[in-house]
From TrEMBL:
<dbReference type="Pfam" id="PF01273">
    <property type="entry name" value="LBP_BPI_CETP"/>
</dbReference>
<dbReference type="InterPro" id="IPR051660">
    <property type="entry name" value="BPI_fold-BPI/LBP"/>
</dbReference>
<dbReference type="InterPro" id="IPR017943">
    <property type="entry name" value="Bactericidal_perm-incr_a/b_dom"/>
</dbReference>
<comment type="similarity">
    <text>Belongs to the BPI/LBP/Plunc superfamily. BPI/LBP family.</text>
</comment>
<dbReference type="GO" id="GO:0008289">
    <property type="term" value="F:lipid binding"/>
</dbReference>
<protein>
    <submittedName>
        <fullName>BPI fold-containing family B member 2</fullName>
    </submittedName>
</protein>
<dbReference type="InterPro" id="IPR017942">
    <property type="entry name" value="Lipid-bd_serum_glycop_N"/>
</dbReference>
<feature type="domain" description="Lipid-binding serum glycoprotein C-terminal">
    <location>
        <begin position="249"/>
        <end position="452"/>
    </location>
</feature>
<dbReference type="Pfam" id="PF02886">
    <property type="entry name" value="LBP_BPI_CETP_C"/>
</dbReference>
<dbReference type="InterPro" id="IPR001124">
    <property type="entry name" value="Lipid-bd_serum_glycop_C"/>
</dbReference>
<keyword id="KW-0732">Signal</keyword>
<feature type="signal peptide">
    <location>
        <begin position="1"/>
        <end position="19"/>
    </location>
</feature>
Length: 458
């Protein structure tokens, strides 16, 4: 079972790893992945093909004499994989089997070349995960076996031994491949689990419909549902079906993952509902470079100086009532935030008193990157931060005068906070022990594409 599980994980590289209903994601595994699977799968495949051969019963002297036969070595010289349109994957394996026949007085060694052909159908299972099944399997024995140490051995023994070995391989090699696939299906069934996004949020992936198989790739429509405190995040407008165009991303990539606009909208709605985008900006009164105090504000707003003759700490309470808006254009991703910012000061009784508040509009440039299996983001401010006075308890406020100070106090803490959140990243569809490597991120009109290599690590 361990052998089956080992190669089963490797075969998982052939299958897009997936997720649930809308908002949509498309995972496309291209031809380039087949060579990698072939390379890393050779050793586990050799081990899996090393099946047990039962005793050969030789009729000698009127009784059956049991002869032990053991596979001492399997060397896979060719391991080719290709996609079969509207079906799945075809496997061609060429291997040399070395057998040891424990006869008296000296053991006999036999080398037998074998070609194994197997077709695996890829479909959608009842729990919305990929299911692989072997639909055809044929071991072929085209070359004659080579015996070593057969001098003096009667042909009457060699021929029956050869027939016995071939009969065993016909039966057991295909069974071994089938066991690998069963192990793979058990493994793929774990894809329906929840992957953490934050302390109280998760993302759930599963297949939306049957896979699309062409001669160039296997593609799966994957749905993603984000959860906050166990409840799904539902977009106010129904998500549209996402179709990943052909020939996007980097040519020659093993994997192409398309991420819809709806997925980004859901992620931002999750952050807003969780309150993760809210923050309090405070300063230390005794700090020499602290601008967050009533003395500094009093230089711009006379009523603040009158109400607070002594310097008192000031805090900015930033709250996101409106959902952030992500916009995806070719080579350009932006986020628009509209926070409500309340400026408060500590009164003589140590309670905070509201001085004034602003409605703020901030446009941010969004840069996306991959780390392991997570898509991460960093932001920077685009243009000027827009301020309009929402309320005031300190009389008239000249926004032109206050803007530079508020901009200075607000911009860096906001970017630090956002980049820490976006740096946590969101996991793409994945298989255990499989990483995305050498990834490139492309922004298109209304969607994002990640082109990546794959690295399997035990």
């Amino acid at each position: 079972m361990a052998r089956a599980h080992g190669l089963g994980l490797l075969l998982a590289l052939l299958l897009p790893v997936v997720g649930t209903s809308l908002p949509g994601t498309v995972v496309r595994l291209n031809k380039a992945v087949l060579g990698y699977v072939s390379e890393i799968g050779r050793a586990p495949l050799q081990q899996a093909l090393k099946v047990t051969v039962p005793y050969f019963l030789d009729w000698n002297g009127g009784v059956h004499q049991p002869t032990r036969i053991q596979i001492s070595n399997v060397r896979v010289s060719q391991f080719d994989l290709k996609f079969i349109a509207n079906f799945g994957v075809r496997m061609l394996v060429a291997a040399n089997f070395t057998f040891k026949v424990f006869r008296i007085p000296e053991p006999l060694e036999l080398t037998l070349p074998v070609v194994l052909l197997a077709d695996a159908r890829v479909a959608q299972g009842s729990i919305r995960t990929p299911v692989v099944s072997i639909s055809a399997c044929f071991p072929l024995f085209n070359a004659a076996p080579v015996f070593e140490g057969s001098a003096g051995v009667a042909p009457g023994l060699l021929v029956p031994v050869q027939k016995h070995i071939k009969a065993v391989l016909r039966n057991k090699l295909c069974l071994s491949i089938s066991n690998l696939v069963q192990g793979l299906n058990v493994h793929l069934g774990t894809l329906i689990g929840l992957t953490p996004v934050g302390p109280e949020s998760q993302i759930h992936y599963s297949m939306v419909n049957a896979p699309t198989v062409t001669e160039d790739y296997i593609s799966l429509d994957v749905g993603a549902i984000l959860f906050l405190l166990g409840k799904p995040i539902v977009l106010p407008v129904e998500a549209t079906h996402f179709v990943l165009p052909a020939h996007v991303g980097a040519a020659g990539a093993m994997a192409t993952v398309g991420l819809s606009q709806d997925l980004f909208d859901s992620a931002l709605l999750l952050l807003q509902k969780a309150g993760a985008l809210n923050l309090d900006i405070t300063g230390q009164l005794k700090s020499e470079d602290n601008l967050l105090n009533t003395s500094m504000l009093g230089q711009l707003i006379p009523e603040v100086a009158r109400q607070f003759p002594e310097p008192m700490p000031v805090a900015l309470k930033v709250r996101l009532g409106a959902t952030p808006v992500a916009t995806l254009h070719t080579n350009n991703a932006t986020i628009r935030l509209q926070p409500f910012v309340e400026v408060q000061a500590v009164a003589s009784n140590s309670a905070f008193r509201s001085l004034f508040s602003f409605n703020v509009v901030v446009n941010l440039s969004l840069q996306l990157s991959m780390s392991n299996v997570k898509l991460q983001g960093t932001t920077s401010v685009l243009g000027d931060i827009q301020l309009t006075v929402a309320s005031s308890n300190v009389g008239f406020i000249d926004t032109n005068q206050v803007h530079p100070l508020v901009d200075t106090l607000f911009q860096k803490p906001l970017l630090d906070h956002l980049n820490a959140l976006l740096g946590m990243g969101i996991a793409l569809p994945k298989v255990v022990n499989l990483r995305y490597v050498n990834s490139e991120v492309f922004v298109y009109e209304g969607y994002v594409v990640v082109s990546s290599g794959l690295l399997y690590q035990r």
